Amino acid sequence: MAEKLYRARPEGRVEIPEDEAAEIRAEWAKNEAQMVATQYIRDRQNEYPSFADQFDQIYHEGVDAWKETIKAVKDKHPKP
């Protein structure tokens, strides 16, 4: 049996009916799957240089060097 879910009410905690709880769990599972499927995006965002640094690299080193920098991040965190 699945763990019971509760809703906070002013009068206290109230148990959520199992049919509604099942819908909530299904939505959680769907959201979790979406988070897992898009984790590479967040990983890439954390590793890309700032826009200012990227523009500076393009100006000083050229577009090809910038492409190499971006490709390294994309290769490190590929799409699933």
Please state the average pLDDT score: 96
Q: Beta-sheet strand percentage?
A: 5-15%
**In terms of structural class, how would the helical and strand content be classed?**
mainly alpha
Strand line-up across the major sheet: 1-2
Topology:
Elements: E1 6-9, E2 12-15, H1 18-37, H2 39-47, H3 51-61, H4 63-76
Helix pairs in contact: 3-4
Structure in words:
- This protein is mainly α.
- Helices cover 68% and strands 10% of the residues.
- It contains 4 helices and 2 strands, in the order ββαααα.
- A two-stranded antiparallel ribbon has the order 1-2.
- Strand 1 and strand 2 (12-15) form a beta hairpin.
- Helix 3 (51-61) crosses helix 4.
- The model has no long low-confidence stretch (mean pLDDT 96).
What's a quick, concise take on this entry?
The protein has helices spanning 18-37, 39-47, 51-61, 63-76; strands at 6-9, 12-15. The chain has 80 residues and is mostly helical. It is elongated.
Characteristic key phrases:
2 strands; 80 residues; mainly alpha; elongated
